[in-house]
Hints:
Number of helices: 5
Structural class: alpha+beta
Shape: globular
Strand content: 25-35%
Strand order of the largest sheet: 2-3-10-7-12-6-5
Amino acid sequence: MGFVKECVHDAAIGVGVADTPEGLATINHPGCAATIWRRQPANEDQNWIDNLPPDRLPRLREILDRKQLRGAAERACAAADTPVCPARTRLLDDIARLAGLFAEIVPSPYLRLRLDVVQSNACAKFHIDALHARLICTYRGTGTQYGISTDGADPKRVFTVPTGAPILLKGTLWPDASKAGLLHRSPPIAGTGETRLVMVLDPIFNLEEAF
């Protein structure tokens, strides 16, 4: 999608905020629990995706070589009858770009791609993922929420990732992940009428173990 800069006014301690896509690699620094690439969708692209009927939004859950992700996302758009237009092309290009960045930062031969259309309280409990790392980008609706917890309880201060801004999070399999105390969740939206479109990327190091 097309993007212009947006200021993320504040972030939790241990969360890096980058102005460039390459800045997501800050996740490799000790003590950094997550990184956010602060960006805002161009108005025309956001208006397009926000006004699509929920059943026209792509849905997908598949393990792929990163070079196959764009094609898979395009097939998901075709299956959902997502309108063919420049905004759809930019969405597909962005999914492929984020997959490439993620695969370089967290080197893995395969990625699990999820495109979820969310209209309820999915994963509304604060948690840390039981994997090496995860990239989440909310293309429509409220972004991922996160905060610091020192005792495992819900964070006292909750931050929300802006729509369209990818967040790269360390999971429990990252050596120093648990030390930061960073927890995240999907925002509770049940009863609000909101529809979210969320892309999730996970690294897959061993295909046999993934199934």
